[in-house]
Amino acid sequence: MVRLERRLPIRGSPTNPRNARAVAGVFVFACALLLAGCASFWPQTAQLAEGLPPGLPERVELSEVPFFPQVEYQCGPAALATAIVASGVKVTPEELVPQVYLPSRKGSLQIEMMAAARRHGLVSYQLAPRFEDLLRELAAGTPVIVLQNLTLGEGWHYAVAVGYDYPAGKLVLRSGETERQVLPFAAHETFWKRSGYWAMVALPPGRMPATAEEGRWLSSIAALERAGGASGARVAYAAFLERWPDNLGAAIGLANAHHALGELREAERVLRAAERRDPNSAIVLNNLAQTLSDQGRDEEALPFIERAAAAGGPHAAAIEETRRAILERISRKK
């Protein structure tokens, strides 16, 4: 089958305003200063000051999200366990330490954080570097792992955003040894932008991020599939196609997942539908021929693989290999 590739905690305490007007004034006053001349330091906070993004509630807090205090420098395992458990998978930070923690670096790399979530059957998705997207995920009920650089003390640090208060201009995080750390938007952006605004979510395969972008979400599902999560990928691709039904890559991915699970009839059904939409796709034609051949229907497969071979393209070598195998099987039957 041809595959289509695509440390220390900053301690904060919530403001205790005397009235709603005072709460709102905190953010309005701070952002007035930003817009007056400091917006280059906190550009996304300044943008948020222009108004609450449409469709978002003023306040959100995911109070049910668990808290795992970090051990020494191991904020990565603690933050990842927080997100994974919130997605319904049982795990402890201790179990994640050998998967993501690098003693030589006294920390965890982003790529290992993403990969570890996949090993637990979840789809890892890196958010676009936008504060608004962070808020949208929280509003949708999804905790968000953020990478900060605190510069003082231990520098690089993972925390989990679990809520926000827009009128007060505050973000709520599970961070380090602090279960409910409250940071002003500008303070968080100061730490967060040093990582290039890096953030990720880890979700069950059937659930899509609120800010999912078609191409990037497809790549995230494909990464789960490559990690050996064919069953989860099958669910994720099916959900993807409900939203983007004409995406050929997702159809190929769904058929590949069915094929890997031995569900050849289901793979054939998906590929025939894809072939009707795009009769010139060499990958679809090759995979359909392979699926038919794997069911012992080589004569039926032959016209499809001949069409794939005629189409050529970057997968020509793999297609020719499929063609030779089908011809050999037909020859042995004679």
In short:
With 334 residues, the chain is α+β, with helices and mostly antiparallel strands. It contains 14 helices and 9 strands. It folds into 2 domains: 20-203, Cathepsin B, Chain A, CATH 3.90.70.10; 214-333, Serine Threonine Protein Phosphatase 5, Tetratricopeptide repeat (Alpha Horseshoe), CATH 1.25.40.10.
Can you describe what's shown?
- The protein has 14 helices and nine strands.
- It has helices at 20-38, 43-49, 75-86, 93-100, 110-119, 131-139, 185-192, 214-226, 230-243, 248-260, 264-277, 282-294, 298-311, 316-333; strands at 59-61, 101-102, 107-108, 123-126, 144-149, 156-165, 170-175, 178-184, 199-203.
- β2 (101-102) and β3 (107-108) form a beta hairpin.
- The model is unreliable at 4-26 and 32-36 (pLDDT under 50).
- Helices cover 51% and strands 13% of the residues.
- With 334 residues, it is an alpha+beta fold.
- It folds into two domains: 20-203, Cysteine proteinases (Cathepsin B, Chain A), CATH 3.90.70.10; 214-333, Tetratricopeptide repeat domain (Serine Threonine Protein Phosphatase 5, Tetratricopeptide repeat).
- Strands 1, 4, 5, 6, 7, 8 and 9 form a seven-stranded antiparallel sheet that branches.
- The longest helix is centred in the first third of the chain and has 19 residues, at 20-38.
- α8 runs antiparallel to α9, α12 (282-294) runs antiparallel to α13 (298-311) and α13 packs antiparallel against α14 (316-333).
